[in-house]
Amino acid sequence: MKVEVVPHDSTWSVKFEEEAKRIALALGDNIVAIHHIGSTSIPNIYAKPIIDLLVQVKDLAKLDQQCSAMIALGYEAMGEFGLPGRRFFRRDNKAGTRTHHVHIFEFDVAEVQRHLAFRDYMIAHPDDALKYSDLKRELAKQFPQDIQGYVNGKDGFVKEMERKALIWKRSQQTIENS
Fold first, then answer.
1. Could you give all domains of the chain from N- to C-terminal order, each with its CATH number?
2. What PANTHER family is this protein classified in (predicted)?
3. Computed over its alpha carbons, how large is the radius of gyration of the chain?
4. For 34, phi and psi rounded to 5 degrees?
5. What was the pLDDT predicted at 163?
6. Whole-angstrom distance between the N-terminal and C-terminal Cα of the chain?
7. Which of 142, 143, 166, 167 meets the CB 3.0–4.6 Å disulfide criterion with 150?
8. Is the CB of residue 60 less than 8 Å from the CB of residue 46?
């Protein structure tokens, strides 16, 4: 798979909104919330041009029964795809280029908080977001045909930012509750 990161595109938020509406219609009252996550949700940074959606549902067992609704929207069902408790779907356009990833979790799992804390931290800390952007650009040059090399190359940085993000998020909640 070709690894390509591109400058931030202002239409990514619109594409997220459009897709969130389609998924909400398909999955109905099982949905608790739909969030834009991943690098396309962070302003001013380079990203792979794939919209990541995090969907919180009331009942994962009900979602498994709704899998055909996601397939009808053009998604490929990937099961947990390496993360217990997640349902992962991906969609390509007619040219075969990946356009969307959908990560579905029950509403109250820690994975959701980790993803949202990372996104919110990066938006609130543009210097760290820029470091992430620069790292992604460098890794895309270093591993232009090796998605696993690209992912492995950013793993340490992402884990450190997630650690900082969770501490930051807890401090924000403390401030809000005082």
1. 12-177 (3.30.460.10)
2. GRPB DOMAIN PROTEIN (AFU_ORTHOLOGUE AFUA_1G01530), GRPB FAMILY PROTEIN
3. 16
4. -130, 130
5. 97
6. 48
7. 143
8. no
